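Limitations
The structure tokens in this dataset are predictions for the assembled complex, not deposited experimental models. Users should treat interface geometry with appropriate caution, especially where small molecules or nucleic acid strands are included. An illustrative entry is reproduced here so readers can see what is and is not provided.
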Amino acid sequence: MIKKEMIAMLLAGGQGSRLGILTADVAKPAVSFGGKYRIIDFPLSNCINSGVDTVGVLTQYQPLRLNTHIGIGIPWDLDRNVGGVSILPPYEKSTSSEWYTGTANAIFQNMRFMELYNPEYVLILGGDHIYKMDYEVMLDFHKASKADVTLATIPVPVEEANRFGVVITDEHKQIQEFEEKPEHPRSNLASMGIYIFSWSVLREALLKLKDQPSCDFGKHIIPYCHEQGKRIFAYEYNGYWKDVGTLCSYWQANMELIDLIPVFNLYEEFWKIYTKNELVSPQFVAEEAIIDKAIIGEASEIYGEVHNCVIGSGVYIAPGAVVKDSIIMSSASIGQNTVVDRAIIAEKAQVGNNCILGTGEDIPNRVKPDVYSFGLVTIGEDSIVPDNVRIGKNTAISGETVISDYPDGVLASGETLIKAGEKI
Amino acid sequence: MRAIGIVLAGGNSNKMRELSNKRAVAAMPIAGGYRSIDFVLSSMSNSHIQKVAVFTQYNAKSLNEHLNSSKWWDFGRKQGGLYVFTPTTTPKNSYWYRGTADAIAQNLDFLKNSHEPYVVIASGDGIYKLDYSKVLEYHIAKKSDFTVVTADVGGRDDPSRFGVIKTDADGRVTDFEEKPISAESTQVSTGIYIVRRRQLIELIEKAIDEERYDFVKDIVIRYKGVKRIYAYPIDLYWSNISSVESYFRTNMDFLDGKIRNYFFKEYPNVYSKVEDLPPAKYNWGSYVKNSLVSSGCIINGNVEHSVLFKKVYVGNNCSIKNSIILNDVYIGDNTHIENCIVESRDTIRANTNYVGEDGRIKIVIEKNERYAI
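Predicted assembly:
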């Protein structure tokens, strides 16, 4: 009989609407990060580096990119005879059929997948953080504490603790109380949304709460286990852990990678991050190019100026272009003499010649001031920006735009230009 | 395609000077991210040749490491596969491969147990893209016994280090001279041949009986008057890297956008082993002009008209000019390198000066303790 000590369930079905047009066509875990990676590469690489070789990836929102990226798991060595990676979309059942209505509900609907591997422990992961973590160490802690449930937690500054779910523990790290976004936090240990469950405890809780609408780990399963007197422990993690849930935090996390010695170092031999990449050809830096601080992916061709940028694979930056403080994702291109300042330009987007991006006043976005902020220009995947336009700050552009979409050749600060109607 | 592939990658070349101390020519790193053998293997894979044998002998450690999985070139299939044949002793034979024909002879079962009617034979030191099925069409149309793919190296390389070929108007080979003292033509053999499998088995068996062991000299050239040998000219990029000068020039060729585009952007692709390296990193103070930079590099200094292979670290205030830095090299601060090939895994101390003088490429081999990066 198949026996896996611990399997992982990776929740990758969320949209991540605070990333705006970046997640118009792809689920958040499939958004690129750090030039050549995608966000989901980090938990997947953590799994294989921790010796977890059986991973269920639960998909729901816009799964195409995730499916093609993960495939049969070859880049992460997750193509296994027994185990490996399985993509788990919602499915139709004879009695009912429903979408995944909550994080725990999604896991519940895949009960049979988990039973197949007869695990002792189940690791629950999200697909929206950048970090390197050894889940095996966390499992050791779980075992040593004789815990039923272990939450990964990270110390956060007390003044920020009110943005998180914090836990209050005793001296053995056993959790006494939970506080969700407390006004006056009594602890600075924030939950990272990473759980290890002893399988019998998880199974019992999922079955008990199967009729709970939108059943969620944080809101229902953990409180239920707490009520039942289960032993819940907090594993303290002290490494780099970065939420990339908003355009601002996404931009910052990318920019941190280009520091002289980044806090999150991709250049260490140990704990490699794996990703699917077909391109192995080198990048070309032309005679007229100037690059002073950047990371640049494979097969990119740089003819213009690049200052403080994260540039993906297969990017083209034309002669005379000046790109500053920006993220240019794979296969995007920037036209001649175009100036780009603080922008996020998604995959395969084409920006024309003689444009200016990120100019003018810092006016909040009219439609979604909380999404498109921080002065950023955000250009969606496959979008086209015509020649000779000026684009302001806190703007978003998606679709194949033409010059007539820009009155007087200008998209003022705070405006949003979404061409294809369904893309929001 | 109705052919199997044989890649002859066992050879050494003294024209590679110190570079061949480390590895077989077929394992030489090319254009930042590749190895020489990737080009022939990718062309075979892209021509739908499914079963390929690589013969290795000389200094094969790097090569075997590179070929540790067949999946990079998509050969890991139930039908076919990638076979690596190194010499082994058997009750019947205790020799190394005494030549290319002997290498094939010692593994003749590979040919006998295949059912594909044709064999494509190629070497591991050519840089090109070729659809072998086009060559096979030509081979069949000409009712040829041997088809040899030829290239014109006029003005670019010295023909006398190749097999020099002359043909008649129909393309039939009238003269084939291996490494002549003075070449009368600039058309040379690329080391790529197509031959019918049964014919090859027959000729190899005969050659071994006569104690002849070289495929080109003892089979192709020896039979040139008897068999129909045709030349298939390759008119796109082809380069052989088996000398330091041509190796250097071939790598520098990739600074040309047209050549880069041809190999890396146009379909079909060239495949290589994926190493999961992070993007290249340019720190404050880096100054890079007209250069190729591969993943995993960290650059702090000046790099001009050079090719940096994977995982090269360039220290502060360095100046790298007209040079090739192979994989995993650490270059300490204030170092000047010009007209050099720096051997892989070198660690070069700070304040070092290496310059290749009088148009001669200097090969730098320096194995220091690598201190903290």
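Some entries come with short summary sentences. For this one: Residues 197-209 of chain B form the longest helix (13 residues).
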